[in-house]
Design a protein that fits this description.
heterotrimer; A mainly alpha (649); B alpha+beta (236); C mainly alpha (197); A: mainly alpha; Cytochrome C Oxidase, Chain A; 2 domains; C: mainly alpha; Four Helix Bundle (Hemerythrin (Met), subunit A); 7 helices; 84% helix; 0% strand; binds heme-A; binds dinuclear copper ion; binds copper (II) ion
């Protein structure tokens, strides 16, 4: 008992606070779940194999991670608000942990899964499918993501967070320079989450290739679906490279290999592997957002997407070029000039397919009839913000100039302009757009507009000054900067902006709360006032578990819009009603995820019996799964008919 | 042209620009990099102007007016000429940027010819300090770098532990100091003065504090400093 | 001549999707091994004070393991052939032979590694050895996984016979097995043969 007390006395105050809030949150949620008798309800979500529920859980969990990483961003900004500031405990080592987990969590546990979650809900609906190709694997992806995420997140209170940046460059990330579990969390946690992501991607690919409704040719697919297909291919290849990089780092830290060490090996191998993954990753989190914006802009302009074919072509080209530019993150490591200029050229070339998309979006609006609902506002905010971030990207591609920008706040500005501009705006746009489809209620428009304006204005205040800070010579990942360099007021403005963004996030949460609590059900297939164009708007909101009672027959790229043009209420469904076969829910993915979590802890702390136990659990669940009969259950025809004709009309 | 641009950037956008190190270079490498920065800024300015003009125009012109809620706008699938134009024009812009980028990259990479007699300085990064060894004089200084003005300098960068990055924003762009490897950075300081030097690569807890002063002096003062250092070394 | 049973066994939509998914998984694995080869090749010369490929490898032993593994590919192909013919017994025997050969290969590999470690060539001796063990270890782990997986499927084969459920699974496992063998051919060439010259 004494030793436990002693342990708590030695903890820094931030960790104590985190511990306390963790305990409070656990007790409170246990209490609430028990009081409202919601345990069964929770379990039905945990074990669900319905793509819509899984998608929603993805969104929910990654939003929690977003709050955590956003909170870290606020702490970063508070430490940097003034020159030579000393905010709380966040100097030196602790600050590095903040930055590293902010970046890592945002990229791997926020941006990527937010988009995967949204697409999980939408893609099957857009192609007229009843579910994804592998519902069980879908749930497994989710649980691997969650266990990897938990691991990265608890590092803060259990032994120290990763502290070598989200890029975790060797040799700083090696045991020699950062002993303890800190940087071991990174490769293990991301390995588990990454495995889930690869499985999810394969799931998307097979779903999109094999499960489209009759008549939906490839060139009739909505852009969201197209972009998710290409993104999934990128994930399969890019995340495999990451897997090797992480395996390598794991070996270095746990098993004593010396491949990355500076004396016996070559630390640059890490950088190459990481960026071979890392650059495609930034398109992995941008392309689905491009898809969402294509759908949103077309819907709210009441116009067919301008240059559909070239849009598809541009996505493919971006994906392809994305694998050939990685050295632009390494211009200053001293590779020879030939290599540098080659990668500068490929980098700049990506501006062309991206430009194609930008102009096609603009010209989609031309001649249309534009409404400014919140999803559209975010899409418009995206165009402005992303183009600004994109052109600074091209500036970064100019090698000698990058010698100046590299690892300065100029890069921090660029990356937030493109990532928040594309991914975060994209997700918010998509969430507002598809919320009624997911939950059957419209998010409040008024709060939506408040949410948009505070978030966007806050955004530009936060990140625009960073361009200038970078040019003034402020390196990134510094916890302090000297008094007389003129950096003070810019940083202060930036900090204020971050708080305004925080208010925006708060309004968003408020909106969700108010809508859920007081909002009215929309009772419409297409709540956006007859602007919907694609298949997801032809079915009830929220859709029944099987999505489509009868199979839609697709004869064009925008079946619903064409029906509207012909003064019809909805598209034609063909075929007979029949019994619908559904996959049964399963608790195995959850247990497999937990087994991975246990094994991961074993690895991180090098408790080998625990690691073995966890891995045994993993193989056990796999074996059980292999033997399980996968019959699922059947929804009888008469229920389907009753539901299809009786509700929502 | 360059003057005008510099002026515009200095005057309009960021008044009091002398504090923006990169825009106010005092070294050869920094100057070339500024040229590229300004060129790319100009080109990107054009891109932004075009995009924003179209954006604002379309938004104003084609917003839904009251009473239009149930109308069906004409659906256009695309336009070959327009689509080709926004492939070709960006391509040209990129070529315009790429050519000087290539030229400057090779130029900065070029070793000095023998007649230039560069001053060689061996820079070693270490958690968390910089040391500068002048082989020509056999002296070492820590966290303070002295350079003679107008003499070509060749930094030989390396590290004793993790990766650091050597950066003097006002003199020129950075170059990484890698353990077990030697990198070269070449530049010439054009004006005397004191400039901030930084470590730009995350290298551990005190990364932010791994700064150094760069003092550029005229020949006599520099020689004096050398003599002092030598004496100091003898004494110590 | 295709056996009539084949159409029925693999026409199931789910089976087709499984097979397609598996091809993409193979795509991912290609990248994994590609990167591991990349690492190996780039640190091959960094032998520090430890032994290099020339001193370490004993080709005749490696050739034996190669023969063992490649013949397992052959028996595996025969297993799929009999599977398509619907012959449960023969399928069982061929696949059993396949995994026995797989186990034999792993056994030889372990002996090889133990010998190396005995000579002082451990995973942390040099970058070259680290990359070597990582590459070979990943491959070996794949073989072990394949053995366990196919054993599971064989139990199912015994229990349920050749069905629309078990047949595609065995087929996929056979693809996996061939893939591992192909990787071995590359390892044999790049690591052992080229290491010796
Ligand atoms: C969503 C994520 C995302 C996206 C889409 C991009 C897009 C681009 N990025 Fe960015 N980038 C990041 C995320 C992203 N980036 C991150 C996270 C980092 C930092 C990593 C780290 O170190 O931590 C980074 C860093 C980074 C660097 C390294 C900087 C350094 O560390 O020194 C470079 C260098 O070339 C670069 C370039 C580009 C380019 C050229 C594009 C292009 O794709 C942009 C193309 C878009 C446009 C150009 C605008 C629209 C086009 C037109 C209107 C047509 C006309 C335009 C022209 C003719 C120019 N990025
Ligand atoms: C998806 C990607 C993403 C997103 C959305 C953000 C969002 C933000 N980022 Fe981040 N950032 C990165 C990705 C991202 N970032 C990456 C990859 C790096 C590089 C890391 C590295 O160098 O290794 C980085 C680095 C980075 C730095 C540089 C750190 C350094 O170099 O030292 C800074 C500094 O200001 C910063 C700030 C912010 C801010 C203010 C936001 C804001 O937009 C955040 C807005 C959100 C909020 C304000 C949250 C509000 C919520 C609440 C207030 C709720 C309170 C909590 C509970 C109820 C639990 N980020
Ligand atoms: Cu040295 Cu940062
Ligand atoms: Cu990149």
């Amino acid at each position: 008992m004494d030793s436990i007390l002693q342990y708590f006395r030695t903890l820094p105050s931030d960790i104590i606070l985190a511990d306390i809030s963790l305990v409070i949150i656990t007790i409170a949620s246990t209490f609430l779940l028990t009081k409202y008798k919601k345990w069964n309800w929770l379990w039905s979500w945990i074990t669900s194999t319905d793509h819509k529920k899984i998608g929603i859980m993805y969104l929910f969990v990654s939003f929690l991670f977003f709050l955590r990483a956003g909170l870290e961003a606020l702490l970063i900004r508070m430490q940097l608000a003034f020159p030579e500031n000393e905010f709380w405990v966040f100097q030196g080592e602790r600050f590095n942990q903040l930055t590293s987990t902010h970046g890592t969590v945002m990229i791997f546990l926020v941006a990527t899964p937010l988009l995967i979650g949204l697409m999980n809900v939408i893609v099957p609906l857009q192609i007229g499918a009843r579910d994804v190709a592998f519902p069980f694997m879908n749930s497994l992806s989710l649980w691997l993501f969650i266990s990897g995420g938990i691991l990265i997140n608890v590092s803060f209170i259990a032994g120290g967070s990763p502290n070598a940046g989200w890029t975790t460059y060797a040799p700083l990330s090696l045991k020699e320079f950062t002993p303890g579990p800190s940087n071991t969390y990174y490769p293990i946690g991301l390995q588990v989450a990454g495995l889930g992501t690869i499985m999810g991607a394969i799931n998307f690919i097979v779903t999109i290739i094999k499960m489209r409704a009759p008549g939906m040719k490839f060139m009739r697919m909505p852009l969201s679906t197209w972009s998710m297909l290409i993104t999934s291919v990128l994930i399969v290849y890019a995340f495999s490279a990451l897997a090797v990089a992480l395996l390598l780092l794991t070996f270095e830290r746990l098993f004593g290999t010396v491949i990355l060490s500076s004396s016996a090996g070559n630390p640059l191998i890490w950088q190459h592997l990481f960026w071979i993954f890392g650059h495609p990753e930034v398109y992995i989190i941008a392309l689905p957002a491009f898809g969402i914006f294509s759908d949103v802009i077309s819907t709210f302009s009441k116009k067919k997407l301008f240059g559909y074919t070239s849009m598809v072509f541009a996505i493919i080209l971006i994906g392809f070029l994305g694998f050939m530019v990685w050295v632009h993150h390494m211009f200053t490591v001293g590779l020879n000039a030939n290599i540098n200029v080659f990668f500068a050229l490929t980098t700049m070339l990506i501006a062309i397919p991206t430009g194609i998309k930008i102009f096609n979006w603009l010209f989609t609006m031309r001649g249309g009839s534009i409404r400014f609902d919140t999803p559209m506002l975010y899409a418009l905010g995206f165009i402005v913000t992303f183009v600004m971030g994109g052109v600074t990207g091209v500036m970064l591609g100019s090698v000698p100039a990058d010698y100046q920008y590299h690892d300065s706040y100029f890069v921090v500005a660029h990356l937030h302009y493109v990532i928040i501009g594309a991914t975060i705006f994209g997700v918010l746009s998509g969430v507002y757009y598809w919320w009624p489809k997911m939950f059957g209620k419209m998010l409040n428009e008024k709060l939506g507009k408040w949410n948009f304006w505070t978030f966007v204005i806050g955004f530009h205040f936060t990140f625009f000054p960073m361009h200038i800070m970078g040019l003034m010579g402020m390196p990134r990942r510094v916890f302090t900067y000297p008094e007389g360099e003129g950096l003070g007021w810019l940083n202060f403005v930036s900090t204020c902006g971050a708080f305004l963004m925080g208010i925006g996030v708060f309004i968003f949460m408020l909106n969700i709360y108010i809508t859920t609590r007081y909002g009215k059900s929309v009772q419409l297939n297409d709540p956006w006032m007859k602007r919907g164009r694609t298949l997801e708007w032809t079915i009830p909101s929220p859709p029944p578990p099987y999505n489509f009672a009868r199979t839609p027959i697709v004869t064009s790229g925008e079946p619903l819009w064409n029906a509207y043009e012909n003064r019809k209420e909805n598209i034609e469904f063909e075929g007979e009603y029949e019994d619908i076969h559904m996959p049964s829910s399963s608790s195995l993915p959850f247990f497999m995820g937990m087994a991975f979590l246990i094994a991961s802890f074993g690895f991180v702390f090098q408790i080998w019996w625990l690691a073995t136990l966890g891995m045994l659990g993993v193989f056990m669940t796999m074996a059980i799964r292999s033997f399980q009969n996968k019959n699922g259950y059947s929804i009888p025809k008469k229920n389907v008919i009753y539901h299809d004709k009786g509700v929502g009309y | 042209m360059k003057r005008v641009l510099t002026f515009i950037v200095t005057a309009c956008i960021l008044s009091g620009c002398s504090s923006i190190a990169v825009l106010n270079p005092k070294g050869t490498a920094g100057e070339k990099q500024l040229d590229l920065l300004l060129l790319s800024l100009l080109l990107m300015g054009i891109v932004l102007a075009v995009v924003f003009t179209l954006f604002v125009r379309f938004l104003i012109k084609y917003r839904e007016k009251p009473g239009e809620e149930n109308e069906f706008p004409i659906q256009t699938a695309g336009n070959k000429k327009l689509e080709i134009s926004w492939i070709v024009v960006p391509f040209i812009i990129i070529i315009v940027l790429a050519i000087p980028t290539f030229a400057t990259t090779y130029e900065l990479d070029e070793p000095y010819t023998n007649d230039k007699k560069p001053l060689i300085i061996e820079v070693t990064g270490e958690q968390f300090q910089w040391s500068f060894y002048y082989p020509e004089y056999g002296i070492t200084s820590t966290d303070e770098l002295r350079l003679p003005v107008n003499r070509p300098i060749s930094f030989k960068l390396t590290s004793n532990d993790v990766i650091h990055s050597f950066w003097i924003p006002q003199l020129g762009g950075k170059r990484d100091a890698l353990p077990g490897k030697e990198n070269t950075l070449r530049l010439k300081a054009l004006e005397t003065g004191t400039y901030d030097g930084k470590c730009a690569e995350l290298c551990g807890a005190e990364h932010a504090l791994m700064t150094f002063d760069t003092i550029v002096e005229n020949k006599t003062n520099f020689s004096k400093w050398i003599e002092n250092m030598k004496d100091g070394e003898k004494d110590g | 001549m295709q056996a009539p049973a084949e159409e029925k066994l693999f026409s199931d939509k789910q089976a087709q999707m499984n097979i397609l998914a598996f091809w993409f998984l193979i795509g991912a694995e290609v990248v994994v091994f590609g990167c591991l080869f990349g690492i190996y090749v780039s640190v091959q010369e960094l032998t520090a004070n430890g032994p290099g490929p020339k001193e370490l490898f004993n080709l005749s032993e490696i050739i034996i393991s190669t023969i063992v593994l490649l013949s397992s590919s052959f028996t595996c192909a025969l297993g799929v052939y009999t599977l398509k013919l619907g012959k449960k017994r023969m399928t069982f025997i061929w696949f059993l032979l396949t995994i026995s050969l797989g186990i034999g290969f792993v056994f030889l590999e372990v002996i090889e590694f133990v010998a190396y470690v005995g000579e002082g060539a451990t995973i942390s001796t040099s970058a070259f050895l680290g990359a070597f063990y990582m590459l070979l270890g990943t491959h070996g782990a794949h073989v072990i996984f394949g053995v366990v997986w196919i054993s599971m499927l064989l139990i199912q084969l015994v229990l349920f016979g050749i069905t629309k459920d078990t047949a595609p699974k065995l087929f996929i496992a056979s693809l996996y097995w061939h893939f591992i063998d192909v990787i071995w051919v590359f390892i044999f060439t790049v690591v052992y043969l080229l290491g010796k010259v």
